[in-house]
């Protein structure tokens, strides 16, 4: 079994154990997102909650972060929404392809 995991890792294929970790991570992130949304009501919150509830993988939840943020911002304001999303954003670490993680933003300057 260890040999298979090494082969999967070398080939960059998900192994059996990583699928369980991903399912666990999916559940934790989904619960956290629904928890922050559940404190509020309204049609837009319900619509976002439904999309979070039925997201099929961690990647889908990654893309729903902006919808959750927007819904929370409309009710609590942007700074409160950012605080609530900070811990959720950190939950994605290790569950996304490298190119999908948070990026360091660089300010563009005109040197001309």
What distance separates the N and C termini?
Answer: 59 Å
The whole-angstrom Rg is 17 Å
Number of helices: 5
Tell me how many strands there are: 0
Strand content: under 5%
Q: Give the averaged pLDDT, no decimals.
A: 78
**SSE order, one letter for each helix or strand:** HHHHH
Overall 3D form: globular
What this model shows, in words?
There is one protein chain. The protein has 112 residues and is mainly alpha-helical. The chain has five helices and no strands. Helix 2 packs antiparallel against helix 3 (43-53) and helix 2 packs parallel to helix 4. The radius of gyration is 17 Å and the shape is globular.
Main features:
mainly alpha, 112 residues, 67% helix
Strand and helix map with partners:
Blueprint: H1 2-10, H2 16-38, H3 43-53, H4 58-76, H5 78-90
Task: Briefly summarize what is shown.
By secondary structure, the chain is mainly alpha-helical.
């Amino acid at each position: 079994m260890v040999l298979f995991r090494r082969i999967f890792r070398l080939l960059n294929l998900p192994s059996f154990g990583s699928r369980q970790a991903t399912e666990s991570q999916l559940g934790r992130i989904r619960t956290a997102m629904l928890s922050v949304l559940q404190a509020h009501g309204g049609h837009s919150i319900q619509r976002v909650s439904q999309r979070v509830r039925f997201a099929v993988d961690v990647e889908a939840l990654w893309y729903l972060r902006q919808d959750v943020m927007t819904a929370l911002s409309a009710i609590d304001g942007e700074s409160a929404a950012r605080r609530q999303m900070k811990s959720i954003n950190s939950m994605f670490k290790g569950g996304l392809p490298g190119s999908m993680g948070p990026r360091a933003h660089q300010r563009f300057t005109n040197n001309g």
